Amino acid sequence: MMEKESRLKRFFDRRLATIMVTPCIIILLGMFLFPLLWSLGLSFYDYSVLRPVPPRFVGFQHYNEIIRDPYIWARFATSMRFVALAVGLQLVLGVALAFLMYDNFKGKKIFMALMLSPMMMAPVAVGAFFRFMYDPSFGIIPYFTRTLFNADIGWVTDPSVALYSLVLVDTWMWSPFVMLFTLAGLLSIPQHLLEMSSIDRASWWQRFRNIILPQIKPLLILALLLRTMESFRLFDTIWVMTGGGPGLSTETLAITLYRVAFQHWHTGRSSAMAYIMLIVVIVLTNLYLRLSMRQEGARR
Amino acid sequence: MDNKHGNTWKMIKPYVAVVVSLIYFFPVLWVFLTAFKPRVDIVTTIPRFLFTPTLDHFFRLFFRRVTVAPGEFALEATPFARFFLNSIFLSLTSVALALALGTFAAYAISRFPMRNKGFLMFYILSNRMLPPIAVVVPLYLMYRTLGIMNTYGGMTLLYTAFSIPLAIWMMKSFFDDIPYEIEEAARVDGSSRFRAFYKTALPQVWVGIAATFIISLIFVWNEFLFALMLTGRETRTVPVALSTALRGERGVDWGLLASVEAIYVVPAIILAFVAQGFLLRGLTFGTVRK
Fold this sequence. Notes:
The complex is a heterodimer of chains A (300) and B (290).
Chain A: H1 2-14, H2 16-42, E1 45-46, E2 56-57, H3 61-68, H4 70-100, H5 108-120, H6 123-134, H7 140-149, H8 162-187, H9 191-199, H10 204-233, H11 236-241, H12 253-262, H13 267-299
Antiparallel strand pairs in A: 1-2
Helix pairs in contact in A: 4-8, 4-10, 5-8, 8-10, 10-13, 12-13
Chain B: H1 2-35, H2 39-42, H3 56-62, E1 63-69, E2 72-77, H4 80-111, H5 117-129, H6 132-146, H7 152-177, H8 181-188, H9 193-201, H10 206-222, H11 225-230, H12 238-245, H13 254-274, H14 279-283
Antiparallel strand pairs in B: 1-2
Helix pairs in contact in B: 1-13, 3-13, 4-7, 4-10, 5-7, 7-10, 8-9
């Protein structure tokens, strides 16, 4: 009896690693891998959840159609434009903000918290509220641009402007995120390096390029990748703020995918589209991981 | 000359920083102001900063007046209280579950030798990086087939799975930070691996558990797309209710919407403030440990 119990205990102890990891892995496999394999299967079928017709095998037809479809490519271009503009602006502004918030001043913690609050808000709430603030007849933003610059801008009504309005919202939310990364990098620069360069009377730009940038670069690359992934898949804010409109001006790939899946109910086709998006994201994740490993290696 | 210029900049820099952070905060402030504005002061061509504050919208959010008999009114509760409770219940239970399971897994990965550890960590993280819009299509099918759409069990399971990758990555970073020697010493003294984990390692990472809990909570609290497709009238969360409120037939009731947002964003902002020191770590899945 005693013997048996201790054997059980020893078995438990020896297998502890497996026992500890298994529940999580089972949940992840069941909740993400399994449904994804299912939809991989469906992407080769003509199928709609709403039609009581059994799925019909079509092979690579969906993939073929999607890749040849100029409409999809145009949406992809919209996504890319949004990502490039938003992430680019966030990087520049984020670094600038970091320099602004680097020195200590009274009440810094509070002001920092104010600046970080946008990114903690539910994206749906942000989208909804900016729709209110951008409203051409009673929004506060058109009011400001009207009175200050005498410019009547159709923030969410003009198809040539709407995407930029979205970029602005995303930048407002996430440039403080880049600031956090940059601040972490700035704080890791040895003080004597900065002092030495100021004695050398190196110009501001030289100092930035030669001392500061190399120190914050690895962190900035991480921020860039994370932001790229997130803005590429962004759905909530766009969906409630513009719903893809006016026209197709803010219809990104994520919005189109939603429409194909849940408004036109082309389940098979939407599964194929989802896979094309997945491949992009998996490549980016891989990159993120490699770079963060390097970062970890450098620290040790 | 150059020096002098630098000094002036140094002097005004804090003021610039204050102004910039106030600009960033302004839209949030505007939400709060709108939530307390009387209806007539909200939709105006010239924005109003001065008004008599009212709690009308908050009241309307939770109660509505129904006519019982001519000239007689009674108060009836709106379903909003339920949506709030749903958001609170789902985020708390699923994050607690994910953190419990994730802490075990993180400890095992941090401490024990394993084959393909790199691949395991990659696989775990990749679940978090998946675009929700790509996952929600098959999840919708699966939930429909299993008949667990619009159930608390199904939603808890979903958000648990959603939170596990962050929990594992972040907790692993906290375990990696504490030295293994103490547990090894405990092992030499004859304690089992599990006891070494429970008695020696766990007490050292309580701050990490709290930080991971808070940051995971914010993510689940703000989640929209999964909730949009997989909840129904009973299990609906506030973000979904918010988006449906935007499709009102008689125009959008902005005062009501602002009051929902005001209530909904406050907890997230407060929690973020509490965990400010761990924000970067949480947002980078524990890879940047500042």
